Amino acid sequence: MSRSLYQPSHGFFQQQDAATLHALMRAHPLATLVHVGPHGPVADVVPLEFVADAGEHGTLRGHVPRANPVWQQAQGQEVLVLFHGPQGYVSPGWYATKAEHGKVVPTWNYAVVQARGPLRAIEDAAWLRTELGRLTAHHEAAVGGHWALEDAPADFTDKLLGAIVGIEIPVASLEGKFKLSQNQPTVNRDGVEAGLEAQGAPAAALLERMRATR
Predict the structure, then answer these.
(1) Residues 107-139: pLDDT tens digits?
(2) Are 132 and 63 in contact (CB under 8 A)?
(3) CA–CA distance from 129 to each of 32, 43, 66, 122, 159 (Å)?
(4) Is 8 inside a domain boundary?
(5) Residue 167 is assigned to a structural domain of this protein
(6) 5 domain residue, yes or no
(7) Of 154, 167, 79, 153, nearest to 124 (Cα)?
(8) Tens of pLDDT, residues 142-169
């Protein structure tokens, strides 16, 4: 299957560890789903659940509004799904080598995972209810577990279930690109981490990701 993420020939940024890719997808479930519509490429932002034990390479599951044509246009089509991890600007002023020779430029650090696979639309109400219950339970657990699908009146949820369509994407391939200054000497990586640390909370996730690559 063809790649669409540019990977420099030095290979520093390519991430192939499946567990690492799965972890980023779970930590950043709001994905960009790209398919080809009748007038060209279309991108939708959709929260997707990665189920590792469904299929050879795992499966992505979620739902979209019935009014969104993606579930009809992309039915059976190979789609591209992008999961965006932490990212941020890197100042050349953070590099120790700036003082040595000045041959430094700004860049951007980031971590992304790209998944591909055929999209299948699911209109089965029981499947949708099960998927919504599992998805809600997962995300509610992270915020204290204050709400469950059963907390809403049954007639209300039944009506809402009729307004959405499930989507399932068996993953055919996964590719990761973690551009985190791996191509820089240690003194420059130290400088980038110090610069990010000075920014505090806004850069904390990117700093943690950089340190994990050490």
Answers:
(1) 999 999 999 999 999 999 999 999 999 899 889
(2) yes
(3) 23, 26, 15, 12, 12
(4) no
(5) yes
(6) no
(7) 167
(8) 898 889 889 999 999 999 999 999 999 9
Instruction: Spell 9-45 as b/e; 16+ CB within 10 A means b.
Output: eeeebbbeeeebbbebbeebbebebbbeeeeeebebe
Q: What is the CATH number of the domain that holds 76?
A: 2.30.110.10
What sign does the CA torsion over 28, 36, 174, 141 have? positive
CB atoms within 10 A of CB 76: 8
Angle at 135 between CA 130 and CA 139, to 5 degrees: 150
Angstrom distance (rounded) from CA 163 to CA 184: 50
Closest CA to 15 of 176, 196, 127, 192: 176
104's CB contacts (< 8 A; 6+ apart) are 92, 95, 97, 98
44 falls within a domain: yes
| pTM of the complete model | 0.92
Return the structure tokens found at 35.
């398919």
Tell me how many domains the chain contains.
1
Contact yes or no for 38/72 (Cβ under 8 A): no
Domain containing 109 equals 14-209
For 16, 49, 119, the CA distances from 27, given in Å and listed in that order, are 17, 10, 22
